[in-house]
């Protein structure tokens, strides 16, 4: 059994979960579930980033202590994970003592090695982004981009990490590890960023300006800034489980790839004598109805409410089916309902109901053994073998949207097989050959449904469980053994009916 460690970015608690947070968790969950199905021993980490000036200000504005504010918002992220059936092993919070301890240990280690020094800094500072800015961050007309909010010029003493001296090491590391960033074209962006000299990294804030942070172990008048706090959490979670380090995949949004996770993080780990992660997976952004997602303009989706209305697995399916990993995509109710009705209700749901209905109608609710088969059955079996092999390769390459397309093409082919065999006609015949063919047909569609379902647990865990349940089937412990055409459903008692994807009756939980 191979150990497999996968992490997500930790979400900043200055706001409630949105569609982007939901997608990142579901995407990572699909990978984690697939690796478990393949037999790996998976450790799946997610969590929240709870320190910083914006949290301190938000708590003050709300009139509550920062810790209380963090407790309340972090619970929203926990609830989202539970709601979306996320199978994380651990949920880390940067205010936890286990995390603070590791951060202080690493900071002291680097300070003792001379990797951290104190210097006076004069420059422009963005409170909104909690970062110092350079002239290259300005717009062409000299103004500051709106993303930075109010920008002020300040002079203060701070501690700096010797980032620049590791620049050549990182460039060489990226060249030796061409798959360090997925998709690969994102790795080129990292190297382009590294074409310019790096500045040493400011890693502290004076406590007189920011109290809500982890105090530097070598100077109590300062707290550590986000880089040596948030980025350390992935290591914190498995420090007592060294068999899982380094992380196999770290899943993040493309906006925080460069420089935080692709530059600062590996260099920080290198300086600490810790092996860097094996790979970063940078996913794209969702727009809503063709426009940028924004609560202020009302253009947003509440993932929890959407899941309540349409079902968790329907939302999971749409997000994974609609977005090519690494690319941007658009979330619209029109497209969601198109996939919901055509692919889930009318294709998969229809196949389930036809299988149950005809097995009950013509075989007393018990799946019969196939008595004969010809080229029609063999054609469907060959399609299954092709589908299975393609889907496994697509899952390995994170091409989940195409894997689902292939899976549902097989479901479509199974429905077409039913039309070709027309069991409702065979059931009216008293001819022995027709009756034998009827049994073969019922056995074939049940087995095809079982196999299609076997490809779905990573994306639609609840739906897969329900379908197996109505087929009277309990999958075995070794998932790959489930992917071979067989007679294992013979004699199973099926349910009378199942409504997996009911027709929506009320307006969607989507604002525009």
Summarize the structure.
46% of the residues lie in helices and 16% in strands.
Question: How does this structure look, described?
Answer:
There is one protein chain. It is built from 17 helices and 19 strands. The chain is an alpha/beta fold. It has two domains: 3-283, HUPs (Rossmann fold, 3-Layer(aba) Sandwich), CATH 3.40.50.620; 332-483, Isoleucyl-tRNA Synthetase, Domain 1 (Orthogonal Bundle). A hairpin with a 2-residue loop joins β15 and β16 (291-292). The longest helix is centred in the C-terminal third of the chain and has 31 residues, at 333-363. The two termini are 48 Å apart.
What layout of secondary structure does this protein have?
Blueprint: E1 3-8, E2 11-12, H1 19-37, E3 41-49, H2 53-62, H3 66-83, E4 90-93, H4 97-112, E5 116-126, E6 131-133, E7 151-161, H5 167-176, E8 181-182, H6 184-193, E9 201-202, E10 204-206, E11 215-216, E12 219-224, H7 227-230, H8 233-236, E13 249-253, H9 257-271, E14 280-283, E15 286-288, E16 291-292, E17 300-301, H10 303-310, H11 312-322, E18 329-331, H12 333-363, H13 375-396, H14 400-421, H15 423-426, H16 432-454, H17 461-470, E19 510-511
Parallel strand pairs: 1-3, 1-13, 2-3, 3-4, 8-14, 13-14, 15-18
Antiparallel strand pairs: 5-6, 5-7, 7-9, 10-12, 11-12, 15-16, 17-19
Enzyme class: ligase
Domain Methionyl/Leucyl tRNA synthetase: 5-136, 148-356
Keywords: Aminoacyl-tRNA synthetase, ATP-binding, Ligase, Nucleotide-binding, Protein biosynthesis
């Amino acid at each position: 059994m191979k150990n497999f460690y996968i992490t997500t970015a930790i979400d900043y608690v200055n706001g409630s979960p949105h569609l982007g947070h939901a997608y990142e968790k579901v995407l990572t969950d699909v990978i984690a579930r697939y690796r478990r199905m393949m037999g790996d021993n998976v450790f799946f980490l997610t969590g929240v980033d709870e320190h910083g000036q914006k949290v301190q200000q938000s708590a003050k504005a709300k009139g509550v202590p920062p810790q209380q504010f963090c407790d309340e918002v972090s619970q929203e992220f926990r609830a989202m994970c539970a709601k979306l059936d996320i199978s994380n092993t651990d949920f880390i919070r940067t205010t936890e003592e286990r995390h603070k301890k590791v951060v202080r240990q690493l900071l002291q280690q680097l300070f003792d090695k001379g990797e951290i020094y104190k210097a006076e800094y004069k420059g422009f500072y963005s409170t909104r982004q909690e970062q110092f800015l350079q002239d290259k961050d300005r717009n062409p007309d000299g103004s500051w981009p709106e993303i930075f909010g109010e920008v002020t010029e300040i002079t203060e003493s701070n501690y700096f990490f010797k980032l620049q001296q590791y620049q050549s090491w990182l460039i060489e590391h990226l060249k030796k590890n061409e798959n360090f960033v997925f998709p690969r074209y994102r790795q080129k962006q990292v190297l382009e960023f590294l074409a310019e000299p790096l500045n040493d990294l400011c890693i502290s804030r004076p406590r007189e300006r920011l109290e809500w942070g982890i105090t530097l172990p070598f100077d109590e008048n300062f707290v550590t800034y986000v880089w040596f706090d948030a980025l350390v959490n992935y290591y914190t979670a498995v420090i007592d489980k060294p068999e899982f380090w380094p992380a196999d995949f770290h899943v993040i949004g493309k906006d925080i790839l460069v420089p935080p996770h692709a530059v600062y993080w590996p260099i920080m780990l290198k300086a600490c004598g810790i092996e860097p992660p094996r790979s970063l997976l940078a996913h794209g952004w969702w727009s809503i109805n063709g426009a940028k997602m924004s609560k202020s303009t009302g253009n947003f989706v509440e993932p929890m409410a959407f899941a309540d209305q349409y079902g968790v697995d329907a939302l999971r399916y749409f997000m994974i089916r609609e977005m090519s990993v690494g690319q941007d995509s658009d979330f619209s109710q029109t497209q969601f309902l198109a996939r919901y009705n055509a692919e889930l209700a009318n294709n998969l749901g229809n196949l389930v109901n036809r299988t149950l209905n005809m097995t009950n109608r013509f075989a007393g609710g018990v799946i019969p053994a196939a008595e004969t088969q010809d080229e029609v059955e063999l054609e469907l079996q060959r399609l299954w073998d092709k589908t299975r092999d393609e889907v496994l390769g697509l899952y390995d390459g994170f091409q989940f949207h195409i894997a689902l397309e292939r899976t549902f093409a097989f479901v479509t082919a199974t429905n077409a097989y039913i039309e070709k065999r027309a069991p409702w006609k065979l059931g009216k015949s008293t001819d022995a050959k027709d009756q034998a063919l009827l049994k073969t047909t019922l056995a074939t569609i049940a087995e095809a449904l079982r196999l299609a379902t076997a490809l779905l647990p990573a994306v639609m865990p609840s739906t897969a469980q329900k379908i197996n349940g109505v087929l009277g089937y309990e999958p075995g412990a070794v998932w790959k053994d489930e992917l071979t055409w067989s007679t294992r459903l013979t004699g199973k008692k099926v349910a009378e009916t199942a409504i997996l994807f009911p027709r929506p009756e009320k307006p969607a939980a989507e604002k525009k």
